[in-house]
Amino acid sequence: MNRIRHDGPLIVGGGLAGLSAALAAAPRKVLVVTPAPLLEACSSAWAQGGVAAALSDADAPALHAADTVAAGAGLVDAKATRALTEDGRATVEWLAALGAPFDRDAGGGFAVSLEAAHSRARVARVGGDGAGRAILSALVMAVRASAHVEVWEDGRLRGLLRDETGRVRGVLIARAGGLVEVTASAVVLATGGAGGLYGQTTTPAALLGEGLALAWRAGAEIVDPEFVQFHPTAIDVGLDPMPLATEALRGEGARLIDRDGAFLLGAAPDADLQPRDVVARAVHAARAEGRGAFLDARAAIGEEFPHAFPTVFAACMRAGLDPRVSPIPVAAAAHYHMGGIAAGPDGRTTLPGLFAVGECAATGVHGANRLASNSLLEAAAFGRRTGRAAAGEGGIGGSTSPVANPPDMEADDLQNLRETMSADVGVVRDAAGLQRALALISTLEVRAPGALPLIAARLIAEGALARRESRGGHFRRDYPATADAARHTRLSLNVAAPALLVTA
Ligand code: SIN
Q1: According to CATH, what is the number of the domain 232-334?
Q2: Is the pTM of this model over 0.90?
Q3: Closest ligand 1 atom, residue 229 Cα
């Protein structure tokens, strides 16, 4: 086993959250470890919508915060949300200063558009639907030009190293056919979400909740893992992962219809801009009833499509579908994990030495249902806060306990898990389906004991089974009502699995 001491923060993940943290940790030396070259295999590069922030004269951070709280269905943390929304303008300006080419209005300000459940137009976009890739490209250039950051683009996280007090002291990385233990002054998990656990997903399939699973195994508190957001307009053209048709299309007037042209959510002009969970369930129901679900952009966007939404247009055309003349077939697909590793806006988790930021973290700003385009803001704003906090951690060393390298799952078993997660832990859930999924997870655990995707899937399914109500992105057909009191699910390894500690 190779052993390396890194005198500074070590960041696992090269998406927007990880790279924002890396830049903000200067002048400390930072090591960023990602399993794939930067810009590949991270969700932020795929984001189409943009960065939500109060940028127009008609808007204010308090209005943005109020919309975030309303969308989150009772489980949004007001303090964290205030921090997030007040960071909005400065974060967009920081990204622009790094070279992110945001769309501009005639006066040179940020052009902003409307997305579902926002009371104001506040999503700063890039090239129509290319925000994620363009913003991340600017950060990648900045990181590559920064002397304080070293990047390993071929390292896969396999374990967390802890000392005898439980403090996280480093990571176990698989690299170049071997294993290497890297000790560091702080470990930042920016490992992304868990969409790859689902057969129908808009996220990179490699995102299997492995950071979440390792944090759980190390004893970090996990919050609300059952809250998975399903995007209503994943393009259903037989691809895995499914290309996304951004919500901004509906913001521009595209409509959801069934095979006969009937509106899925009614004829009101803003009917399709209801919260994402409501729209996702309508799409799911129409498909389950055999009516099909389609996004019709012919009238609202028509000939403007190729330059207004080039990413979506290209995805459709690659599949032989011209969205100027045909409605786009859509399905609800796993898109974002609201639950995750409990963390503050500065990334601190319940474990000393361990930070979490971006989609793998649960900072309280998404609650039960994330407001569209808040995640890129969170990744950059809280990424910067996390980088600064992690840079303040001193000291490396201390003896660490050996960590086992968990097995990978067989491809067929992983596919079986993914299909089951979409069918039974998906848009519509009930006790029978959740128990079926947990039984499959138990069977697969025998074949790959300790496999990280199975731990992550179990956390989501156990959380969903324990939550006997419907709230935000979690809908139980056997418990369709929302409980009067909003409570978090908090899971900790100290509580013998599968028992859950559910506290307010
Ligand atoms: C979208 O563009 O519809 C996705 C934006 C988001 O998920 O925040």
Answers
A1: 3.90.700.10
A2: yes
A3: 7
